[in-house]
Amino acid sequence: MPTSDRKSRRSPKTTPLLPQKDDDSDVQSGASFYGAVFNLSTTIVGAGIMALPATLKQLGMIPGLIVIVLVGFLTESSIDLILRFTRAARVTSYSALVGDAFGGVGRTLLQICIVVNNLGMLIAYMIIIGDVLSGTVSDDVQHPGLMQEWFGDRWWTARSSVLIFTTVFVFAPLISFKRVDSLRYTSALSVGLAVVFVVITAGVAILKLMNGSIGMPRLLPQLDDQASFWKLFTTVPILVTAYICHHNIHPIQNELNDPTKMKSIVKTSIVFCSSVYITTSFFGFVLFGDQTLDDILANFDGDLGIPYGSMLNDLVRMSYGIHVMLVFPIVFYSLRLNLDGLIFPHAIPLIFDNQRFFSVTTALMGFIYMGANFVPSIWDAFQFTGATATVAVGYIFPAAVALRDTNGNGVKKDKLIPWVMMLLAVSSSTVAISSDLYAIYRKRNGFTS
Question: How many other C-beta atoms lie within 10 A of the C-beta of residue 438?
Answer without folding.
Answer: 17
